[in-house]
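Action item from last meeting closed. Structure (458 res):
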């Protein structure tokens, strides 16, 4: 008797299994698995220093989980209505908009991603241009490159009356909607898994429809397109309108209507947060308040700092940026400029070949890291300064930090990691640990050896 019951259950289960249900099950599981970790990765101590929260990236994971559970339910109960298909299309579109939501409502994240990407690229270029000197153990004649100004979280979309050209449309898709290589450098693969999960589930919903899948897809698109058009128009207006007003405020500023510039700028910053990453936006607001006899001391100091920065007066720039940051500690753009001003001081000190003081330069690089933790250029420059000064143990410690930080990126920078592993090799050679020194050297020239596990001596 029990065997008959088991046999009946197996027969029932096998009758329920088909390619559509398997596809729906795989899509549902992919959606649930996509919520394993946050969809955006940046060093935690950097986020803390800048007062940045990844709450949006964390909360966004709820969407695929809910759809995954919903998908499992309807996989079992075999509901395949048009409403369900449209619901999953909407879910897919919402997930595709994650970059836009992240860069719009958390512009400090974009600022950090842009700066980390550009810092990594500049270090790679320095390694490639100075390879022979960098490979030499003592590096006595090496010169560091001057850093660029901090990359804003927003390059203004409208800078002239010809903004509706192809280049601006391309900029709209990359910088404004977030589909940019800088942003994607630190995005988690779980976001792509969520997109894949939605796509698989939708594919499953169109299976076994008596050869009517194409017809059903056409009808669904016909129902979706009007709403997509409305959504796109609303999205475009919400982006273009603040940028148009931002551009037109230049005219009001030139006419001397400073009070209007102040009030409208503050409203724009609230309604469209990416403007907080535009140094010109803050500079115009600070000058408008000063000329209207209603100065914001934090912005006045920022303007003075920017003027000193353009004159390459790094010491005065640091002083003004520090004063501005003390008055508005959550302004990520000020923090970025402060770090850059200090970094320039350290580079100037290091590049004095006739009277090089590596200890003073190293101190400047260390001060950068207190303002902007894990600043790639500061870490790299500090690692070189310590090596030039013969402090190989300290240089190796910094190399380990660089290697750790590169784990947050989608694609670690090979030139930067090669240098970090080379400095570890020198430490091993200095300590007469020749086996580890050889393994580290292999890692410096062969990225396939990066996964080698080597126990560091404590």
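Sequence:
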């Amino acid at each position: 008797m029990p065997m008959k019951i088991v046999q009946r259950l197996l027969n029932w289960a096998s009758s329920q299994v088909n390619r559509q249900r398997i596809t729906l099950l795989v899509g549902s599981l992919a959606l649930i698995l996509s919520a394993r970790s946050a969809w955006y990765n940046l060093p935690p101590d950097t986020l803390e220093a800048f007062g940045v929260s990844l709450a949006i990236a964390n909360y966004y994971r709820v969407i695929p989980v809910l759809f995954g559970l919903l998908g499992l339910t309807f996989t079992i109960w075999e509901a395949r209505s048009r409403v369900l298909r449209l619901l999953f299309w909407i879910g897919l579109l919402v997930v595709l908009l994650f970059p836009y939501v992240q860069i719009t409502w958390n512009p400090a994240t974009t600022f950090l991603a842009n700066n980390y990407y550009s810092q990594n690229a500049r270090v790679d270029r320095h390694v490639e241009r100075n390879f022979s000197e960098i490979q030499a153990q003592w590096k006595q004649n090496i010169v560091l490159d001057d850093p660029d100004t901090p990359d804003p979280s927003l390059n203004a979309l409208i800078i002239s009356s010809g903004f509706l050209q192809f280049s601006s449309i391309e900029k709209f898709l990359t910088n404004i909607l977030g589909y940019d290589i800088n942003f994607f450098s630190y995005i988690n693969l779980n976001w792509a898994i969520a997109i894949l999960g939605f796509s698989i589930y939708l594919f499953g919903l169109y299976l076994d429809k008596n050869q009517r899948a194409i017809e059903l897809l056409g009808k669904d698109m016909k129902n979706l397109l009007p709403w997509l058009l409305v959504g796109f128009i609303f999205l475009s207006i919400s982006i273009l309108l603040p940028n148009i007003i931002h551009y037109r405020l230049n005219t009001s500023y030139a006419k001397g209507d400073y009070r209007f510039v102040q009030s409208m700028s503050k409203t724009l910053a609230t309604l469209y947060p990416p403007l907080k990453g535009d140094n010109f936006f803050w500079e115009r607001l600070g000058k408008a308040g000063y000329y209207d006899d209603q100065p914001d001391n934090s912005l006045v100091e920022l303007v003075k700092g920017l003027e000193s920065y353009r004159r390459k007066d790094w010491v005065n720039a640091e002083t003004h940026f520090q004063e501005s940051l003390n008055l508005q500690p959550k302004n990520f753009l000020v923090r970025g400029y402060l770090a850059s001003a200090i970094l320039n001081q350290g580079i100037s000190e290091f590049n004095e070949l006739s009277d090089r003081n590596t200890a003073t330069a190293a101190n400047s690089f260390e001060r950068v890291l207190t303002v902007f933790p894990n600043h790639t250029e500061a870490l790299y420059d500090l690692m070189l300064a310590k090596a030039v000064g013969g402090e190989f143990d300290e240089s190796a410690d910094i190399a380990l930090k660089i290697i750790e930080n590169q784990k947050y990126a989608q694609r670690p920078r090979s030139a930067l990691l090669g240098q970090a592993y080379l400095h570890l090799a020198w430490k091993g050679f200095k300590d007469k640990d020749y086996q580890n020194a050889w393994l580290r050297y292999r890692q410096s020239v062969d990225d396939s050896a990066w996964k080698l596990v080597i126990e560091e001596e404590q």
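Note appended to the action item: Residues 213-254 form the longest helix (42 residues).
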